Amino acid sequence: MDISKATNEKKLQLCRTYFRAGWAFLPFVWTINVCWFFNEAFRVTPYPEQTKIKKYVIFSLIGSLVWAAILISWIIVFQTKRAEWGAMADYMSFIIPLGKA
User: Fold this and answer.
1) Which residues in the chain land under pLDDT 70?
2) How far is residue 26 from each of residues 6, 54, 56, measured CA to CA in Å?
């Protein structure tokens, strides 16, 4: 997406929309927000809307990192403890790995 042709107000509106959409348990949207608006927030000549865009980009980055930490933690715990959890873990699994009988 080329946001360079959009007005500064439109950029702020779009950044705010993606930030709010991330609250619907969509951390990928926050990651996209950081990727698209990082240059606008930190690398271009300052303009009035930039401070709000910068705020949304920083909060989106923090939200993405928190979600990544949560997901990585869950993956590690589930993969290491799955066999110990027995049937409960089997109900959570789509593919049940074959093990020793």
Assistant:
1) 1, 97, 99-101
2) 25, 20, 15
